[in-house]
UniProtKB/TrEMBL annotation, chain B:
It is found in: Cell membrane. It comes from the Bacteria. Belongs to the binding-protein-dependent transport system permease family. This is ABC transporter permease. The chain crosses the membrane at residues 88-114, 126-147, 153-173, 194-217, 223-243, 255-273. Residues 84-273 form the ABC transmembrane type-1 domain. It is a multi-pass membrane protein. CDD domains: TM_PBP2. It comes from Pseudomonas kulmbachensis.
């Protein structure tokens, strides 16, 4: 079971045409003043249209670096990243990123101006239409009443909503989310996951989502790519379309979580399946 | 021991709307007045003026220390006759020219510094060379190069504004968070648009601090330059007014001139810069 992933290429089974995003044997390195560190090693995966694709792995496995490479902030030292057959070379508004940090919203712009900012900066729309579209997406995330507020007056969850509205308003080819809810409290995080799924039902955007929480991966994603600890290599790709917020705590959900836990941390098969795991133990990093 | 872990009775409370206690109430008048910054600062000024008046009366020597009231009347006369306003006008025009050129150069230099490695080296070398050099020390050289007149004053003013502002602006640019930078690049912003739309607003607190320091440096350099060399340019400014009146032993007019220097400083600080801060960085929650 484990051997089959060695030297793999991305799973082609269900793809009918060329994938929306293809990451092919990508290795990433970053520099410190003393040495060059390999963050990921020959990672491949493909994302189809309307996928909610999750990159899941322990801290330091290079999943965020991988997302930033797709966004165009790092270039791979080997392999290729292609979006709709076109090589990714630089950051661009067709791959909007939602970051974890709250300071991703320029504090000198109101909520509405923040959502309009990429539309205007990338010259996608003229001012009036940008305003209309901004209000439309603010309505979708339920922040119409706060359109003229400044970001420093908002709560963490509201800031995350603004960042999502801002990214969706660009109608990007793919939406990149880098642990967007990790800085939120548990209740708000649950609410945001729910809202993100509702938005997806409505808009059907394509999502690449980085997380270190098994539970969040199962709830949010329809496919999960598991990365090994540093340097990140592909450990498995798992389907999770059948799970949602409603399945939290169910037996199947727990089994899937346990399986992922075992794959990530390479625990002995027999020992871990024998153990009666409490669900609370599985949430590795909240 | 077993008592501490015994189970207590659970309960639920149905909450009625809270009407018996007012949810918010006003502070007393005294406290509200004390919250007004301008009122507190005016009080300090009044106390200082009274102290001055008392000391001057005790001293009783108009030639060395005129009283506050004498100075005030000299100031009033100067303003009414238009002489003082005329001098202030001359000084401010020169000051603004030097200030604006200095700002433009500082932004050009810092933009270069955030874009290229060479620009960074250039900025750090130049600021460490010229920042410690007093602007007034360049005046003899400026007079030699640009002759007697406005241009040599503007040259030293630019020198006094440029390095302080460039240093602050560059420090502000370096402090802009990595996430905000990435967000800007994500929108496809590059080069000068990236600087204008992301870096400058994000670094505004430092830039404003630099503008304030630059303004103070420029103002004091100008007065000093006029005091020393103001006579040589056909019509002198405020520094020249002070210098001339000292020569003729009109000490009250000297004090009136100094008071105007201070008043303009206070006005610019409290009206221009405070307003700028209130409508920008304070409103955006970047400074409290």
């Amino acid at each position: 079971m484990n051997a089959s992933v060695q030297g793999h290429t991305a799973s082609h089974l269900t793809a009918t045409g060329p994938a929306l995003l293809s990451v092919d044997q990508v290795s990433l390195e970053y520099r410190t003043p003393q040495r060059v560190v390999r963050a990921t090693h020959q990672v491949s995966f493909e994302i189809d249209s309307a996928d909610r694709f999750i990159l899941l792995g322990p801290s330091g496995c290079g999943k965020s670096t991988l997302l930033k490479a797709v966004a165009g902030f790092h270039s791979p030292c080997e392999g290729h990243i292609r979006l709709l057959e076109q090589a990714v070379t630089a950051p661009g508004p067709d791959r909007m990123v939602v970051f974890q940090e709250f300071d991703q919203l320029p504090p000198w712009k109101t909520v509405k101006q923040n959502v309009m900012f990429p539309l205007l900066a990338s010259r996608t729309l003229p001012r009036r239409e940008a305003e209309e579209r901004a209000l439309h997406y603010l309505d979708k995330v339920g922040l119409t009443a706060f359109a003229d507020a400044y970001p420093h007056t908002l709560s963490g969850g509201m800031k995350a909503r603004v960042a999502i509205a801002r990214a969706l308003a660009m109608q990007p080819k793919i939406l990149l989310m880098d642990e967007p809810f990790a800085a939120l409290d548990a209740l708000t995080r649950r609410k945001m996951q729910e809202e993100l799924l509702l938005l997806w039902e409505e808009v059907r955007f394509t999502l690449l989502f980085v997380t270190h929480s098994i539970e969040e991966a199962l709830v949010v994603g329809n496919r999960i790519l598991l990365l090994s600890p540093h340097p990140g290599r592909v450990r498995a790709e798992i389907n999770s379309h059948q799970y949602g917020l409603h399945s939290l705590g169910g037996t199947e959900f727990q089994q899937a979580a346990r399986r992922i836990h075992r794959l990530l941390f390479d625990e002995n098969d027999v020992a871990s399946s024998e153990q009666a795991l409490n669900f609370a133990d599985i949430r590795i990093a909240y | 021991m077993s008592q501490s872990s015994s189970v207590r009775q659970e309960y639920e409370v149905v909450l009625e709307p809270l009407l018996t206690v007012p949810v918010e109430r006003e502070l007393p008048l005294g406290q509200r007045l004390w919250q007004q910054g301008w009122l507190r600062k005016s009080l300090i000024l009044i106390v200082l003026a009274v102290l001055w008046e008392l000391v001057a009366r005790y001293q009783n020597n108009d030639l060395l220390l005129p009283t506050f009231l004498q100075t005030a009347s000299a100031l009033y006369d100067g303003l009414i006759s238009g002489e003082l306003l005329n001098k202030v006008g001359i000084s401010l025009v020169v000051l603004l020219k030097g200030y604006l050129i200095g700002i433009a150069l500082a932004f050009a230099l810092t933009t270069l510094a955030v874009s290229t490695q060479l620009g960074r080296d250039l900025l750090s070398t130049l600021t460490s060379m010229f920042n410690p050099l007093p602007a007034i020390a360049l005046l003899p050289l400026a007079l030699l190069w640009f002759g007697l007149g406005q241009n040599s004053l503007i040259f030293v003013l630019v020198h006094s504004v440029l390095w302080a502002l460039a240093l602050n602006t560059y420090a502000g640019f370096l402090g802009v968070s990595q996430t905000l930078r990435m967000a800007g690049r994500n929108y496809g912003l590059k080069g000068i648009r990236f600087v204008l739309l992301i870096l400058i607003p994000a670094a505004l607190p430092s830039i404003l601090a630099g503008l304030k320091i630059g303004w103070a440096f420029a103002w004091r350099t100008l007065i000093a330059a006029e005091l020393v060399f103001g006579a040589t340019s056909g019509k002198g400014g405020l520094g020249w007014y002070i210098f001339q009146n000292r020569n003729e032993l009109y000490t009250d007019k000297v004090f009136a001139g100094l008071a105007v220097v201070i008043l303009i400083g206070l006005l610019v600080e409290n009206l221009v810069f405070d307003t700028l801060e209130r409508v920008t960085v304070k409103r955006w929650g970047m400074q409290h």
